[in-house]
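Per your request, structure below.
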């Protein structure tokens, strides 16, 4: 399929433009909303019928599996393996770090605690730079290369910057990241420096970084790689295809995603919708979005006005990746909630921390922002919105090593102050005490170590 067949469709007013004609801030000149990529075979695409070469599900299922055994980098990528459904650049322009192909794990302990038969986690933290951002960055950065840009940039709470810096380094492009000073996890900041990016910490929050960057891309030839860039979402839709492959095309009932800037939920929604439209599956999963209580503008908007308007908030949560008060893609998120069904929930700091420890205890682990999914699912199961016999897939968006400081503070009992702990229920306190595994400091002799093991075996705290 020719690379020139795609268009950008404004999700607000339906205006269609050629990819090269997008404004540098990726806002529609007519209504200010965001674009999505449309192909001749897309639902509702305006093209002459004879020009539509409709992809064949059976042939593609076979081809996508076959590519896993190929020695070509573009085939080994778990994103570009599916390139037939996002022909946005020529193959020789693709910049890949073999992203995607991430595991779909069972979470038996969490499932049992919820009384569910089957709970799955798609671990996007197992990508090359440790987060789901790689799946989108490989796509959009390849477009930057094919359009001849020398500079790329993003504002970030950390993961986008790490991904962009890595892919820019591979492509030989210069990159600049704007991050909020002191409000992102060190692990992520260290990555962007290591990959050679120009790393600028602004004395502001994420929303302030976005404001400055928007002005920069309007004034200089810098390619914007935030998730307003619709090509990012073409890569981020591919985990939906992988989930379907990994479940033998049995569509899960629920997909649970963290909500920050609110693009990933719509990317996955687009992926599932395309699978249904092309005849791979006959229904789509419900997609629920979970926000931290301190960064909950979509939750509030859905509750107060059904998502017709959104009031930005000053965001504050220890889940720094989703510390976003003015999410760019909130309208896309509302459309996904409406199209697929599903809910927007909010969870407290303590609920996030307990859920993160539970995911750690499965031998998997994730970063705090990803743990909101399990915390949110507990609420959805508790009031019956998710049935215990239904299948849910949690999107674990980032690796546990992204924010080790958070984990260490939790296990040392230093994450929460006494005022915060005072609001914990007794069940939460019990879970908190049982799940903490702080280091035990002992003299260097075997007797002391064995005594400590005995005490643990008897469920007592060693003296
Ligand atoms: N989980 C993690 C680990 C993230 O890094 C992000 C966003 C999200 C969830 C939310 O995804 O924005 O599509 O709703 N991180 C951004 C960044 C914004 O700059 O890395 P979203």
């Amino acid at each position: 399929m020719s690379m020139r067949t795609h268009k950008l469709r404004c999700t607000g007013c339906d205006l269609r433009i050629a990819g090269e004609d997008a404004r540098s801030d990726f806002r529609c000149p007519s209504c200010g909303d965001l674009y999505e990529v449309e192909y001749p075979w897309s639902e509702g695409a305006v093209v002459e019928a004879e020009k539509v070469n409709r992809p064949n599900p059976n042939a593609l299922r076979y081809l996508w599996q076959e590519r896993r055994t190929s020695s070509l980098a573009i085939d080994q990528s778990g994103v570009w393996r599916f390139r037939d459904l996002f022909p946005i650049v020529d193959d020789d322009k693709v910049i890949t770090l073999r992203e995607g192909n991430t595991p779909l794990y069972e979470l038996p302990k969490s499932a049992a605690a919820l009384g569910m038969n089957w709970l799955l986690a798609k671990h996007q933290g197992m990508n090359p730079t440790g987060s789901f951002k790689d799946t989108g960055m490989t796509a959009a950065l390849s477009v930057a290369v094919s359009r001849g840009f020398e500079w790329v940039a993003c504002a970030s709470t950390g993961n986008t910057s790490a991904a962009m810096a890595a892919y820019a380094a591979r492509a030989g492009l210069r990159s600049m990241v704007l991050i909020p000073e002191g409000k992102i996890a060190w692990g992520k900041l260290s990555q962007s420096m290591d990959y050679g990016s120009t790393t600028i910490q602004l004395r502001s929050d994420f929303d302030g970084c976005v404001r400055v960057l928007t002005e920069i891309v309007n004034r200089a030839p810098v390619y914007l790689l935030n998730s307003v860039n619709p090509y990012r979402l073409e890569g981020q839709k591919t985990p939906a295809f992988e989930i379907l492959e990994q479940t033998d095309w049995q569509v899960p009932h629920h997909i649970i995603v963290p909500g920050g800037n609110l693009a990933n939920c719509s990317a996955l929604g687009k992926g599932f919708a395309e699978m249904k439209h092309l005849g791979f599956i006959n229904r789509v999963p419900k997609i629920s979005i979970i926000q931290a209580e301190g960064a909950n503008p979509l939750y509030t908007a859905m509750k107060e006005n059904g998502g017709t308007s959104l009031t930005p908030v000053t965001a504050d949560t220890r889940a720094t990746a989703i510390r976003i008060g003015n999410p760019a893609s909130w309208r896309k998120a509302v459309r996904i909630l409406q199209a697929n069904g599903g809910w927007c929930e909010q969870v407290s700091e303590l609920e996030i921390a307990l859920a993160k420890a539970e995911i750690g205890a499965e031998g998997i682990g994730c970063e705090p922002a990803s743990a909101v999914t399990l915390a949110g699912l507990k609420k959805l199961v508790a009031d019956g919105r998710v049935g215990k016999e239904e299948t849910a897939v949690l999107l674990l968006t980032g690796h546990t090593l992204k924010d080790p400081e958070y984990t260490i503070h939790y296990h040392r009992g230093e994450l929460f102050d006494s005022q915060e702990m005072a609001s914990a229920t007794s069940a939460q306190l019990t879970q908190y005490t049982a799940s903490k595994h702080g280091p035990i400091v002992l003299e260097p002799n075997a007797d002391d170590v064995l005594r400590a093991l005995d005490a643990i075996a008897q469920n007592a705290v060693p003296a």
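The longest helix spans residues 368-382.

Regards,
D.
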